[in-house]
Write a structure and sequence with these properties.
single chain, two-stranded antiparallel ribbon
């Protein structure tokens, strides 16, 4: 059978999470990193793109540069991406998008995703601050998103090698990021052969997210990670967005502003003193909280909730977005997902 939901061993979980319709893979697991960048300039985006392509190599054979259709990667498409990063037109005049993967239809565990808007950090003015202090203000909160997914049998999917690779990215090591997370994740296709097949794939993905609390999902659960908050503006005395996270994960990169909101790195370190498997690492513009030596699936049906994930989730709860938007992950997930997936780690 194509879709056997019996999970008996760690090896069997990959097959159980995968969904195939008509020979096309519509859902599959991966090890995925996603980074939100408030002031992307271009060089850090190009570094992310090039390092991801070097790591995944021939696994990234098809590209969509905003057309909605995947075509073979060529020297021309790579030059288009390089030009967008080296000479970007500032947002809102221009925004750049590309996605690369192994196949022209469906999904595979190898994927590179970039949603890039060039925005320069502006020096605050008195007029800006007065505007931001108004509850009905609608400031520009657009940020860039960089994401890369690795097959679970890829050499860089080994926890220590993956962390070392991530830590060398320019956007992590030297730049200001809004937040970033990494861990086991479901990728889901948008181009199912049939509408009914897409629905079945969505139901499957939602059910697996509810079953395995350590799983994240790429792009199908949406949340605003930069929000206009008048109280935060008054606290900071600057026209700045409040930085949030979506959900705790294996690797949790917090911006310096988020660390300050939680009382500082010292307070966070003290919170985890009795849990040596939770590690903290400081970066130039933020802090990494590592929830365990390796990513974990968890299994709600067996009462298995990753302990490190739960403790980190409780610590990061003040930063979690208050609400998320679900999209095509099945009725059960739309009905129960917020309680059973979004907040479940905080409640254990």
């Amino acid at each position: 059978m194509e879709n056997d939901l019996v999970i008996s061993t760690e090896l069997g979980i990959v097959d159980a999470l995968t969904w195939v319709e008509g020979g096309v893979t519509l859902v599959c697991p991966s090890l995925r990193l996603e980074i939100a960048v408030p002031w992307a300039e271009g060089p850090e985006v190009l570094d992310f793109h090039q390092r991801s392509r070097e790591a995944l190599g021939d696994l990234l054979r098809f590209v969509d540069i905003g057309s909605g259709k995947l075509r073979p990667v060529t020297a021309k498409t790579e030059e288009q991406i390089r030009a967008a990063c080296e000479q970007p037109v500032p947002y809102p005049k221009k925004q750049y998008f590309w996605i690369q993967r192994s196949v022209a239809q469906g999904v595979t565990p190898a994927e590179l995703y970039v949603d890039f808007v060039m925005r320069a950090d502006q020096l605050p003015t008195k007029q800006m601050l007065e505007r931001w202090r108004k509850p009905d203000a609608y400031p520009n909160l657009r940020y860039s998103t960089l994401a890369v997914a690795f097959p679970l049998d890829h050499p860089l999917a080994q926890p220590e090698r993956f962390l070392a690779w991530v830590s060398e990215l320019d956007v992590v090591r030297h730049r200001r990021f809004l937040c970033a997370t990494a861990g086991y994740c479901l990728l889901r296709a948008t181009d199912a052969p049939t509408f009914e097949g897409g629905q079945r794939a969505g139901n499957h993905a939602g059910a697996m997210l509810l079953r395995h609390p350590g799983l994240d999902v790429a792009r199908w659960v949406r949340a605003a990670l930069a929000v206009h908050d008048v109280d935060y503006v008054e606290r900071m005395r600057q026209p700045v967005a409040k930085p949030l996270i979506r959900r705790a994960n294996w690797l949790n990169f917090l911006s310096a502003e988020q660390v300050a909101l939680l009382g500082g790195s010292g307070a966070l370190q003290s919170r985890f003193d009795d849990m040596p498997t939770i590690g903290l690492t400081e970066f130039a513009h933020g802090l990494l909280i590592r929830a365990g030596d390796a990513p974990q699936w968890g299994d709600a049906a067996a009462g298995l909730f990753p302990n490190e994930y739960c403790e980190v989730a409780k610590a990061l709860a003040p930063l979690r977005v208050p609400k998320i938007k679900f999209s095509a992950l099945g009725q059960a997930f739309d009905r129960d997902g917020e309680a059973l997936w979004f907040r479940v780690l905080e409640r254990q």
